[in-house]
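Researcher: Can you fold this with NAP in place?
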Amino acid sequence: MREPKVVIIGAGMSGICMAAMLTRAGIEDVTVLEKAGDVGGTWRDNHYPGLECDVPSAFYQFTFDRNPTWTRFFSPGPEIHRYFAGTVDRLGLRNKIRFNTEVVRSEFHNGQWQVDTASGDRYQADFLLSATGVLHHPVLPDIPGLDDFAGPRFHTARWDDSVDLKDKRVAVIGTGSTGAQLTVALGGKIKQLDLYQRTPQWVIPLPNWGTDPLTKVLRRFLPLTSAMEYHLVKRGMAFLAEGLTRPGWRRKMWSVTARGNLRTVRDPELRAKLTPDYQPGCKRLVISGKFYRAVQRPGVTVITEGIDHIEPRGIVTKDGVLHETDVLVLATGFDARAYLRPIQLIGPGGLTLDQAWKDGARAYRTVALPGFPNFFMLMGPHSPVGNYSLTAIAEAQAKFALNWIQDWRRGAFSTATPSDHATLLFNKKVQGALPRTVWASGCNSWYLGTNGLPELWPWSPFAHERMLADNHRDEFVLDA
Ligand code: NAP
């Protein structure tokens, strides 16, 4: 068998998954290039107060490295980060990772990928795997005067732990999952929290069970292994998530639950402020049993007047009022449509990724790209990242890439590239199915691509797994 050289870009959850699956398959020449000094991607970058995952931990983990001791149903960020770092150590992957090594460019040359780093090093690879994450590039709001603010100011993904918030007036701009979690963590516990809301969110009040007495009793008497828990939650999540991809009673159920939850806000004026004018699920649902309670606490104000500008002392809203603040927190989300950019990717013949994506990001079956041989992406365009566990998606996509690499080892081909035709057909089907998803029902969100349609998987996540279980060899152009 031939031994491939594999380079993976990124040591976040997907990169760890890919490296683990290659290593477990006996492929040893694997190098993971990571621009930061630690593993964990988004779980390394984000450590703001209140951070939790909105996918149950039982299902937000690798099937090949289960953790039977999650402390909560939705575990806190630091615990998840520890778990992924633990996977790296348990599976002996750390020596494959080159930290502080930022990939800036990669070109396919003489049958191999040449991978160039910011420090001027070059790596060669038979296969290049992009695992650069979905929520990686923080978006800073384009608000006049942002740089004039005199106090500490940071994006939630760049949280400054040295700033003590206790006796401070804190302004949080943004009410997505991050803004909501911060509000729960800080509301009522600091001097004043001003939450700047441009668009209200629908909130689903799922409780976050911990190791409370009931769970302990249940665990004692129900002989559930973590593998059984994984599959139970997986089935449950996929079942309920279908409401997001097609109309029907499950979509109604999300709607009734979110609307019922909103009614728990007692003050009609505040309730009106928090009432969205789009369908529940169109933007990512905020999962929180505590958000509405938190915004009703003393010392929490929801400000819906638009922001005019920022000055050294605080935020001036369009009505001319200056809201003085000590700390400015930007919970303004991420550029989820960047994918592996700004890395320059250049295929044989000089085709660049920017050229290939000039009309929007498109992939072959979410994982590969015509014009770019022996290249696979994890969390590529139209992956089911809106309604499923990203660990399960990463495993399905990594397995697809691994199957191709195994064929290469057996000498079946030297380069494999998905055909334009197959990619076109796939994307036509996707575009045709997207309009019936709730994500396309009329709202602005990080799910939307340049054509205004969501860059998400419009069917059941199980269909995505089934699709990737097959190599679809006839849809690839192979060179011997
Ligand atoms: P987000 O959902 O994109 O929310 C960004 C927020 O910032 C929105 O409320 C947006 O308002 C607001 N905003 C952006 N620019 C603004 C501006 N110039 N002026 C005023 N407001 C502005 O980002 P996120 O909350 O960080 O969440 C991103 C994703 O990360 C989530 O959807 C989720 O998938 C994941 N996440 C998950 C968890 C969890 O597991 N519980 C926690 C955090 C994040 P508009 O709505 O008007 O655009």
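Model: Folded with NAP in place. Residues 52-54, 135, 141-143, 173-179, 181, 196, 198-199, 284, 307, 331-334, 444, 446 surround NAP (CB under 6 Å).
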